[in-house]
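User: Here's a chain of 397 residues. Predict its fold as tokens.
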Amino acid sequence: MLINFPYGPSLAVDLSSILTNCMRRPQIKFVNADKSKFFPTLRERVDEHFTSTGLSRSGNSIMLGKAAFMLLLFLIPYGLILSNQFTALQMLGLVVLMGIGKAGVGMAIMHDANHGSFSEKTWVNNLFGACLFLLGGNVKNWKTQHNTLHHTYTNIHNHDEDITGKPWLRLCPSETLKPYHKFQHIYAFGLYGLMTFSFLAKDFRLALSYNRQHAAGDKTITQFTKKDMNVLILSKFIYLLFIAVIPLVVTSLNFGQWLLGFVVLHFVAGLILSIIFQLAHIVEGADQPVPCQAGTVQNAWAIHQMHTTANFTCPRWLSWYIGGLDFQVEHHLFPTVSHIHYPALSAIVRETADEFGVPYNQKPSVGEALRSHIRMLRKLGSYQPAPVPELIAEPVH
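Assistant: Prediction complete.
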């Protein structure tokens, strides 16, 4: 049995809900009940594309120029602020540029690198993946939450943490409807701006949560070792030194002015990052499948990705800035392929999807994707589905 809700992440994670559910979370199995040849055929065609063009699946040298631009967009305004040659108001403008650069680093550099697609060389991926520390985040947590959970169990409640356990947002019909959710289409964007704020405390709670899940038998979750915890603590200390202590010491900013800049920096970055990621999964046409009681999704994994993910059309400059995340369908099918190849792959994916009768969700513009997301927030804030039987946990082997 498969129930599809036409609702298709938010980002400030409430771990109290996750901790309540993680111990009884069953394994999810994707079953290709119809014996679909969609993904084998698609994979063969994509392989042929790279063979015939002689292109590497990674970004390699092409990504280096983009990485330099995004890092400089973040770091040059920071350096100008430290020069203390500008008024407080001008520094605030520089902070906005830093926020735009910070989001660009996350989407166009860190994202590819931590998927292993920035370069063919592991050490290069690790180096640029570590840009996440510059944003205040943690690489190990990101890879677990995003690469493992989100990409495997996309839009499945209690498995994909992007839609699960948000205290002020209802992003899934399986979440309890609260009276204030009917206004979430209005206040959600304020919460989205808190995304990178949450890194400072969330990463510690996630590390503890993942260790508990691993100890409970969930071997899809890798344990935080003592070394990992030391990296977590040290990286947070360095980030606070970089973003708080140094600006306060070397500039004439008082604490209130610095605090305003700190808030604006994180709000700008968090809002951009959240909106771009939300447009992929919480829009009309992006399903949220409910597994049967045995924890089975009656769809091949690749077809599940097609049902739960959406693209949107945008100008080329914007696609360049957001790291090809307007092509989320292609990214979810081929997460280890660099985003620079997604425009070429999209034609192959769309043609193969049409051939096999598989949906290809494409919003015609950023504006329409955003309006679709707002409509979904409004519907989820007022719609209470019939109760769904609770999943029965199976032993994890």
